[in-house]
Amino acid sequence: MRIIITKSTSEAVDVVSSLLLEKLNSHSKLVLGLATGKTMEPVYEQLVEKIVHNQLDIKSHSFFMLDEYVGLPLDHPSSFKSYVTRYLISPLNLKESLFSFPPVDHVNLNKAGEEYEQKIRSCGGIDLQLLGIGTNGHIGFNEPGSSVESRTRVVKLTEATRKANEAQFPNGNVPVEALSMGVASIMDAREMLMLATGSSKADAIKYLFNHHDDDSCPATFLKSHPRFTLVLDPDAASKISLNI
Ligand code: GLP
Hints:
alpha/beta
């Protein structure tokens, strides 16, 4: 695991957006796995600025979303499809067809999960997976208890996760389920880049540092990956002690 502890949130965001830009620039056909969440909003804003500034053409790349709410229309403002449209597709004037979304409108969601996995494989697998972390250590929507062998499937959201996301649902109807890439699907990526910012992530990051392969904090599985980079701001790093 490579750890980058930055001096500020803006530096952490800059590090991650610069790493993404460098990947998009150096590959002719990158397959990039994308995360949602508040943490990623400034990352995507900066990435858009950098792509525009560098006049980078990213139309040969493809993008896979980690997860999507079940039971929410895809055009709902809080769907993850709307999120990525807002932060990447519209500002960069990209074709939606470059992006793949967990197909939550499929009549058979178990089959939908298998088909999504197949689609990832047919694109050659994910080169780089961008990840945030939930306050309970979830990755994607792989909540505590998720198996290291899990694949794209319907997951039940914990109350903690629903509470963390309730601001996006002013009517209080936070979805109860999502279709999420599994831990194994995520671990298949050739490289992983996680960003955690803010004091609300400090406990999960401390747990991640002190435990391995512990399904009560699915992020701990990532430590077994040979190419895992973790970028932290000072608040997210505030409860870890590095013996160096
Ligand atoms: C969300 C997403 C994750 C994200 C995490 C943290 O619900 N499913 O992909 O990393 O929870 O979100 P935030 O960045 O808003 O704290």
